[in-house]
Design goal:
Elements (H helix, E strand, L loop, with lengths): L17 H4 L6 E5 L1 H6 L23 H4 L2 E5 L12
């Protein structure tokens, strides 16, 4: 596996995306979709979510139907190799 020596910028949230709904003061948390899905079984709204690749792909999707919940982390940091620096 190729070692990544640097970090890369992640664009900020787009207007109306899942990430834009989270209070800016919130550093991390879990959003449980199960109660919403149970009480809104006919709601099939789609929304944007930066998930797998830190990009919006696909553009919009029923993410609350694909996942039971999302663990949100505002600030991500790269792992190190475990070697002392």
């Amino acid at each position: 596996m190729k070692k990544r020596d640097s970090t890369f910028p992640v664009p900020g949230p787009e207007k109306g995306s899942f990430e834009s709904w989270i209070d800016p003061r919130c550093r991390y948390g879990f959003v449980d979709f199960l109660p919403f899905n149970k009480s809104h079984s006919d709601d099939h709204g789609q929304f944007q979510l930066k998930g797998f690749t830190h990009m919006y792909y696909p553009q919009k999707f029923e993410w609350n139907r694909a996942f039971d919940g999302i663990f949100f982390i505002r600030d991500m940091y790269p792992c190190n190799s475990g070697e002392q620096q």
